[in-house]
Amino acid sequence: MEGEDTPTDISSKMQHQYFLKFEYMPCDEDQTHEFKAHKLLSVEDLPRYKIENDLGQSKCKSVSRNLCAFLNTELGGTLYCGVNDNGQIKGLKFTQYQRDHFSGALSDLFSRYTPKVSPDRYKLRFVPVLLPDTNEKDRDELAMLTARVCHDGDLTRVPHLFRSIEGCWCEKDCRAQRDLGIGISRYVIEINIKPWDYDDPSNEGIGKVVNAFPIYSNEEGRAVFRRQGSTTTYQFDEVANIAYFVANARCHQVIADLHKKIELTIASIASKLRTR
């Protein structure tokens, strides 16, 4: 409706340069927004004690489920790590090497999806989290300094360890910095899954003509879908029905667009003939 914000409009308005710790997000968890207090990307990142409780139920879920769910809708969505379920901003401590690790781990995760997720489909940002008593005049400059990339050339060549709960070298480096009294900056990790663009030739969807958005399964082989502020997993026959519905709806839209173009072409030809 006119005057209402679409999910894409809302996300674009929320492109913050920084967040303030303990404040609340300007949106709630919904169809296109999800909050996570942790940074556990894949199922391999989950510590054993967080996987199941005494009833065999999952105590903690990786953010991969939410990312897969956002991919399985044409709307896309944004995941915020470092934000409590109630929307309160806490941030997660990251050194530059840990930021590099997370970026690489995310790329590795999406390479294991079926189909693989193109880098064009998502955007990763590390948004600095400042203390609420930070002088307002200094916030922009401090945020820029916090977001600045600063590397030790030798360490950048050391490969990171993904898909493991053992801990990468960058985790040990972070602990060493903390033990030396070096302050570690906090960030909200913002992973934006872009809306599906039917007309983008780089998007390889269902059908060459309709190019409907594909149904993704994550690293566990599960096709996860978004339902307001939660996720759900469907069986194969349910996924097949969804894929059929998506492709069918897109076919009808393409046919309707072609009818309009044909009508406009006929009207244009008729107008030219009348003027002769």
From TrEMBL:
InterPro entries: Schlafen, Schlafen_AlbA_2_dom, Schlafen_AlbA_2_dom_sf. This is Schlafen AlbA-2 domain-containing protein. Residues 29-125 form the Schlafen AlbA-2 domain. The lineage of its organism: Eukaryota, Metazoa, Spiralia, Lophotrochozoa, Mollusca. PANTHER family: SCHLAFEN (PTHR12155), SCHLAFEN ALBA-2 DOMAIN-CONTAINING PROTEIN (PTHR12155:SF41). It comes from Lymnaea stagnalis. Pfam families: SLFN_AlbA_2.
